[in-house]
Design brief:
By secondary structure, the chain is of the alpha/beta class. It has 4 domains: 1-37, no CATH class; 38-152 and 187-346, Rossmann fold (3-Layer(aba) Sandwich), CATH 3.40.50; 153-186, no CATH class; 369-542, Glucose Oxidase, domain 1. The chain has helices at residues 15-26, 32-35, 57-70, 85-88, 99-115, 129-140, 174-179, 194-204, 220-239, 243-246, 249-262, 268-278, 286-294, 309-314, 317-324, 341-346, 405-414, 440-448, 508-516, 529-536; strands at residues 40-45, 74-79, 119-124, 144-148, 369-374, 377-384, 394-402, 422-425, 455-458, 470-475, 492-496, 501-504. Strands 5-6-10-9-8-7-11-12 form an 8-stranded mixed β-sheet. Strands 2-1-3-4 form a 4-stranded parallel β-sheet, sandwiched between helices. The longest helix is centred in the middle third of the chain and has 20 residues, at 220-239.
């Protein structure tokens, strides 16, 4: 069998050093003669015992190994960090979550390059981990299959009096509302946040088996799919089909279109441009606007509506949804299943039109994620328009400025935020945050405050599960002298989603005058990785990658 890279380990031309290499490998209990004949496959696993999204991945990796062995390869597992946004909410830990995307990408890339594996199976479920692994796959360009860990089941589904919804707002009983935000099983939180958005996107990119993303983490089908992934990666090694055979400009556009149809996470506007950069391509924010006008938000999956990811799975999953937008897709794009998307879609079936409606009956007439530009965000900003009530799509109001998320939360507690205002939170970008933390605590606080006509604008980011008139990723950020640093209390801010516009009622001269006097607000950063990250990280509009 082919061993395009690992053969170097077994090269005996230099007897002294080869004896050391093989002696070390032999210490693992591997049969050296067998290993010298078979492809060596890495399993990059983000298993952890500390969150439900990844607690079950050890068992899935074991089935991946079975598939690799059955196909004639040898499997070797290693682990990467598995940060959980949910556990990091509301404290300093959140500042370290997005930066771990780069660490995960670096860890997967450098370990596999150094150990000379012939192929890799990526096993992950959640927010920054799948994007980091995809970035590594683009760099390595090896035969690659991604196994999504699948969604969890919300605890509300296990209640006898569940209505046909998993959305908190549809319940009044406090225990039932709590059950709507509680994971009832292993798997990624059952909303269309970043985790499930990127599990689905991995299918559209062609690196995950069609239909695999929405299979629940606890399902027997997930175990069977894990075995297929292991078998398939060995076949890819034999066929010489590597990651960049699938990761192309066309597959990136397929992924972006799927994201729009799903009403996916705004964090896609960080991760897809970052992946494009690894591929030597560009995916500017303007492309989100282009496809938002072309592809509607078909699905009303929480937070857009009442359904959960399990409902999407029962309705036919990603292939069924993509069949609804087939005319827009690059159907000749290949998948690791060995079929083109056109061939996959030919047999896709929609089993529930309430969850995956026809194109002429979408949840929202345009795609979910759009970019807003203007004198407040010259490089762009991002909003999930499908999660904003129609009356708030055009909104203007005086600014209420806070220098941090903590200050805004204090303002909420004190009741200083008034109806009709635009809350501005700055110094929360990639450099200023540092680490571009989510401001979920603020969006939840505003949602529960009783305020009906308040918008939020920030150079930070939001949870993929956030809803309402929340504009994030404002670029350039305040820490580098972006216009958001010039805003003062009372300045009129205009948000116009239809026009893709974000403006502050200030002249260019006044903005320049204020910025000339601006002194960046610097946070104390502990010694270590974050100090290096802040020096190297790019704008959110460019994916917050390390330059």
């Amino acid at each position: 069998m082919k061993k395009p890279l690992s053969q170097a380990i077994f090269d005996r031309s230099d007897r002294a050093i080869s004896a050391i290499r093989l002696g070390v490998l032999g210490g693992t209990g591997v049969d050296i003669e067998e290993a010298g004949q078979k492809p060596l496959i890495a399993i990059a696993n983000s298993h952890t015992e500390f969150n439900p999204g990844h607690m079950h991945l050890q068992g899935l990796a074991a089935r991946v190994k079975e598939g690799i062995l059955a196909a004639g390869g040898l499997a070797f597992e290693f682990n990467v960090p598995a940060p959980c946004d949910g556990l990091a909410e509301g404290h300093e830990g959140m500042r370290y979550v997005l930066p771990q995307r780069e660490l995960i990408a670096d860890a997967v890339e450098t370990y596999i390059r150094s150990m000379r594996f012939d192929g890799v199976v990526l096993v992950a479920s959640c927010d920054k981990i799948i994007p980091g692994m995809l970035m590594a796959a683009a760099r390595l360009d090896l035969p690659t299959v991604l196994l999504p860990g699948g969604p969890s089941e919300k605890a509300i589904r296990q209640r006898r009096n569940q209505v046909d919804s998993v959305k908190l707002a549809d319940y009044e009983d406090p225990e039932e509302r709590l059950a709507c935000v509680t994971s009832g099983s292993c798997g990624a939180c059952e909303v269309m946040g970043t985790a499930n958005t990127f599990q689905c996107i991995s299918e559209a990119l062609g690196l995950a088996l069609p239909g695999s993303a929405t299979v629940p983490g606890y399902a027997a089908d997930k175990l069977r799919l894990a075995r297929v992934c292991g078998h398939r990666v060995v076949e890819l090694v034999e066929q010489g089909l590597s990651a960049r055979h699938y990761l192309t400009a066309d597959s990136l556009e397929n992924a972006l279109m799927l994201c729009q149809a799903l009403g996916g996470s705004t964090n896609a506007a960080l991760h897809l441009p970052a992946l494009a950069r690894e591929l030597g391509l560009e995916l500017p924010l303007e492309r989100f606007n282009h496809f938002s006008r072309q592809v509607p938000t078909l699905c009303a999956i929480s937070p857009n509506g009442p359904y959960g990811v399990l409902d999407l799975h029962r309705a036919g999953g990603v292939p069924a949804l993509m069949s609804r937008i087939a005319r827009d897709l690059h159907q000749d794009a290949p998948t690791v299943a060995g079929l083109s998307w056109g061939e996959v879609l030919a047999s896709a079936q929609v089993r529930d039109e309430a969850v995956i409606p026809p194109r002429d009956r979408p949840h929202f007439a345009q795609g979910g994620t759009v970019a807003l530009f203007g004198n407040l965000a010259p490089e762009g900003s991002v909003i999930k328009q499908s999660a904003v009530s129609p009356e708030m799509h055009r909104f203007s109001g005086p600014a209420r400025v806070f220098e941090s998320e903590e200050a805004c939360l204090e303002g909420l507690r004190e009741g200083s935020i008034l109806e009709g205002e635009v809350v501005v939170i700055r110094n929360e970008g990639p450099k200023g945050g540092p680490g571009m933390p989510e401001t979920l605590a603020v969006t939840v606080g505003l949602n529960q405050s009783g305020l009906k006509r308040v918008a939020l604008v920030t150079d930070g980011r939001f949870s993929g599960a956030s809803q309402g008139p929340c504009v994030g990723h404002v670029s350039p950020e305040a820490a580098v002298g972006g216009p958001i640093a010039a805003v003062r209390n009372g300045d009129l801010i205009r948000i116009d989603i239809a026009q893709r516009s974000l403006e502050v009622d200030l002249s260019p001269e006044e903005i320049a005058r204020r910025l000339a006097a601006h002194e960046p607000r610097l946070r104390e950063i502990p010694p270590g990785y974050m100090r290096r990250y802040v020096k190297l990280v790019s704008s959110a509009a460019q994916g917050a990658v390390l330059d």
